[in-house]
Amino acid sequence: AAGKVPRRRPPRSDMGRALTLLLLPLALLAAPVRSEGGTAAEEEVQIEVLHLPEACSPKSKKGDLLNAHYDGFLASDGSKFYCSRTQNEGHPKWFVLGVGQVIKGLDIAMMNMCPGEKRKVTIPPSLAYGQQGYAQGKIPPNATLIFEIELYAVNKGPRSVEAFNQIDKDNDKKLSELEISQYLKEEFARDGKKRHPSAHDEILADIFKKNDHDGDGFISAKEYNVYQHDEL
User: Fold this and answer.
1) How far apart are CA 138 and CA 63, in angstroms?
2) Which positions fall inside the PPIase FKBP-type domain (predicted)?
3) pLDDT in tens, 73-123
4) Which end of the chain is more exposed for a tag (fewer CB within 10 A), N or C?
5) Domain 46-155 bears CATH identifier 3.10.50.40
6) C-alpha R_g of the chain
7) What is the CATH number of domain 161-220?
8) DSSP E strand stretches across 26-64
9) Where along the chain do its domains lie?
10) What is the DSSP string of 172-218?
11) CB distance 63 to 100 below 8 Å
12) Phi-psi region for residue 47, left (φ > 0), alpha (ψ -120 to 50) or beta?
């Protein structure tokens, strides 16, 4: 649904799991239906700030890893179709902003938002589930959606300079199979999930298939930085 978080610092294991999944890259919260076109007037997200903390830093931007809770309502009758607090044992949701892991309207609505901020946003059908709707999520065709959002954390995303440098052990500004292999082993050890022995090799091959665009056996800073979040 529109979701792919009480105020506390997330455990390192949670961060490791998020970074691993996002590096692959796999969408944590991918919207199952893309928005459909509309007129210019329909392409606008309405944002109402309900609470703004005195300390508003850092502000969210494309490529950041966000942690948030939110409720979703149908504008037509006010009925609730989604509540993140009843999902995943009540844990807030992690997702990368601005890369299509949530519906386009949420990507727009959560830009320039700071930790602790609360917003009420109205999203037109063209920036949500369009003419098709989303039956599984109980969202009818051409539905305008309202979300009440509370943002808990804004972190550097997995495609940031810091993440790249963490993997690039020899500081040569490119990632080798050995470096990424070691990174995967470390992250898998942190999250503690059981995996088939072949999973490591399959994931490693998939990473290079999707990111090594020039086929030279390395992932360059430019190839890695698909979100255009920082300059490497």
Assistant:
1) 29
2) 63-155
3) 999 999 999 998 988 788 888 888 887 888 999 999 999 999 999 999 999
4) C
5) yes
6) 19
7) 1.10.238.10
8) 46-51
9) 46-155, 161-220
10) SSEE-HHHHHHHHHHHHHHH-----TTHHHHHHHHHHHHH-TT-SSS
11) no
12) beta
